[in-house]
Every structure is written in structure tokens, then in C-alpha cells.
Amino acid sequence: MKVPFNDLSRAHEPLREEILRTIGEVIDDGIFIGGERVSKFESNFAKFCRKEYCIGIGNGSDAIELALRAYGIGQGDEVIAPANTYNATVAAIVAAGATPVLVDCDDYFNINPELIHRAITQKTKAIVPVHLYGRTANMNPILDIANSFGLRTIEDCAQAHGATYLSNITPIGETGAFSFYPTKNLGALGDGGAVVTDNGEVAKRVRQLGNYGQREKNVHEIAGRNSRLDTIQAAVLDIKLRHLEDWNNQRKDTACKYHNFLSDIDIRGLIHSYACIEDVSHLYVIQAERRDELRGFLASRGVETAIHYPTPIHLQEAFKSLGYKKGDFPRAEQFSKEVLSLPMFPGITDREIEYVSGKIRGFYSADR
Ligand SMILES: Cc1ncc(COP(=O)(O)O)c(C=O)c1O
Prior knowledge:
Elements: H1 9-12, H2 16-29, H3 36-48, E1 53-57, H4 60-70, E2 78-82, H5 87-95, E3 99-103, E4 124-127, H6 139-149, E5 152-156, E6 164-165, E7 168-169, E8 175-179, E9 193-197, H7 200-209, E10 214-216, E11 219-220, H8 231-241, H9 244-262, E12 277-278, E13 284-287, H10 291-299, H11 330-338, E14 339-342, H12 350-365
Parallel strand pairs: 2-3, 2-4, 4-5, 5-8
Antiparallel strand pairs: 1-9, 6-7, 6-12, 8-9, 10-11, 13-14
The structure holds pyridoxal-5'-phosphate.
Pyridoxal-5'-phosphate (PLP) is lined by residues 59-61, 85-86, 88-89, 130, 156, 158-159, 179, 181, 191, 193.
């Protein structure tokens, strides 16, 4: 048996006709940038996130960068971010002109609020918490710190569409940035992103920044650029948004099944989750000391896995100039050596989940 790490065709197959018909309608309309279909998706996604405004952006990286810039954050400012995240979070801070300041993670893979204080300086302007793997960062202490130091929070929600924290849906604070990269919980048929916010001024400025800095046609107030959600992508996302809750439930159900099959095995980090959050299981990440051996064992038995992420941000060549060194963020470094993401996608079958779990059990029982 072969189990892919991801298979997008299973979620798309039942929607294929509707998606193709809708793309045909967009071609007939002849409106490929902006228009009512983009506004409709923006309004529906804002509603889904229980926020006032949603602005479609070209991708999730730009969404983070433009949100930071909309708050006036840039050159000379410091922005706090986790050491355990995807490169794009930190690259977006750099793209905004600001300096990323990294913080190690807690037991749940996300930024550790207890370590944020010591990273704050006179130059700190914002925190970018990341809701990694589908579970929110521990937002209450983070928002408390942000409030007491007068910092902005821009949540990186790229992996957490619909995740909740104390019944609040992401973004938990004022503003969040989403990616609609195809494999995300809500994914486009290409690149896409959005900024979601309750702040009307920020919404206006993000829209302007992503549309050549125009206030109105040919009136360029600020040096913006072009980063918009295409009409075809917005139309497809609007169809897919109606299925997001169901897909998230399938992911949660899969996580539950993996957990039940594997809970008696000594794999650290298996059920890590705060009690007060609802994890949307973007990824199902286990933590195994002999990760690479386990990964090879699974691969040889047809199970595809992935690593999110093999190198923490501070050890990436791209961020060498930040001046960090090995040992600076021990938790992130440990995770990078031990995390393994199991197959997780809507449409995965019980047989596949059992097969994957069975092989993992096989790996550990061979030890005994
Ligand atoms: C945590 C995180 N932040 C940011 C991004 C960037 O999103 P995009 O690929 O749409 O630019 C991604 C997605 O790849 C991500 O996983």
C-alpha cells in the first residue's frame, strides 16, 4: 500500500464540475482582477473569521509584509517572531524593512510567551505569533504583553484557518495574515493570501499597498506595489470556503484516530495541545528521537512523510546577518531534529490511517 503525504485531488474531485463551471463564467465575464467575485469572497472570509475586513493579497508572505507596513512598521523597527516557523514568516518581516528578533518555542511548538519579555527592546514594534500546524499560539499572554508594551500583533494564520482559542477564531487579536497556498486548510488553485482585520485604517492601507499605492486610479499616495488575489482564485476559494468546516472536521477526526492508534507508543509530543484551543490539524506532527530512521522505515513501506521544518530560522543561511548561532534556541533546534509530519488531508481513508499507524507501531515494536 502507498499512502501519500497529501492528495489534493480527493477534496477537489467532488467540486470539479462546479469549479470548472465557475472558471468558465469568469472567462465569460472577462474580469480577471478585482470585481464582485473578489469582494464576495473577501466578505465571506471576513465573516468566517468574525472580522470586519478582509483584503485579498497575492500570497501569504505578502499578506504578512503588507500588514506590517500598514501599521507603519519598517526600517529601524524590531519585530518578534518564533524561531520555529516557516521561512516565509521571517522573510516577510525582512521584506517590510524591519529586523526580526527570534524567540524560542513552548512545548506546543509555538512561540513561548514567557520568553517574549526578554526579546523586547526600545525598537520593538510588533509580535508576529504563528499558529503553527493548525493550533493557535498561546494568545492571551501574548496579547497581554503586546498591550502592556504598546506593541502590535500580526498573527501568521497561514496554517490555521478556523482554529480557535478560548472560542475565538483566528486571528485572535486585531489582525492576521492568511495564505491560500494549495495545501493549506483553505487552498487556492495557485497562490493566494489575505489580511483579515478589525482595523479600518489598516484595511484601507493594506488595500492601497497591494494596489500600487493608489487611493484612486492614477492617484498614488504611497509607494505600494502589486499584490492582489486573482478573480479566478477568489471565485474558487469562495466555493471551497463552504467546505472548510467539513474539511477541518475531517482533519480533526484523522488526528484523533492517529492519536488513538499511537497513544501507547512513546513518541514525544504526540498530543501536544493546549486545553483551550481547537486545533484544525493542518499537519499531524509527531516527535520522535530516531526521526530519520523512522522516516526511512515508513518510506520503505510506502508511507510518505514530511518535516516541518528541518532547519530552524536562526540556522538558515538567509538569516545569518541576524547574528544568531547554534544553541540560541534549543527547543526549536530539538524540534527540527525530531518532528515528523504524517499523511494528513481531507479524504484520507481509515485504511490509510490504520496502515500508517500500524507501520509506526511496527517500527517501535521491532525495538522491544
Ligand atoms: C507559517 C507560514 N507563514 C507564511 C507562509 C507564506 O505563505 P505563502 O506561501 O502563501 O506566501 C506559509 C506558507 O507557505 C506558512 O506556512
